[in-house]
Amino acid sequence: MAFYRELGQAPIDRIQAVLTRWWCEAELDADPEQDRIIAAARAGTLPTVTMADVVRLRRERGGELPGE
Asked: Which residues contact 3 (CB under 8 A, 6 or more apart)?
């Protein structure tokens, strides 16, 4: 319900950002390494990349993105 509430309340120019954030949430929820990833993020040891790199890698691997 939080997703629908946030999406419904977002100004039109923020819709893509809302979809992207929730897509990332869904991907993390489905990841078998979720606990390790969260622990590393909290410890400040999680390697990071830009969203542009994530999008590029996803497209290179044939994956779709929200809104496509």
From this structure: 22
Please give the structure tokens belonging to residue 15.
């819709």
Number of H helices, E strands in the chain: 4, 0
pTM of the predicted protein model: 0.56
Q: How remote is the C-alpha of 60 from its chain's centroid? A: 17
Integer Cα distance of 46 and 17 in angstroms = 22
Give the contacts of 37 (CB within 8 A, at least 6 positions apart). 28, 31, 46
pLDDT tens-digit readout, 51-61: 889 888 888 98
For residues 41 and 64, give the distance between their C-alpha atoms in angstroms, rounded to a whole number: 25
Confidence of residue 68 (pLDDT cuts 50, 70, 90): low
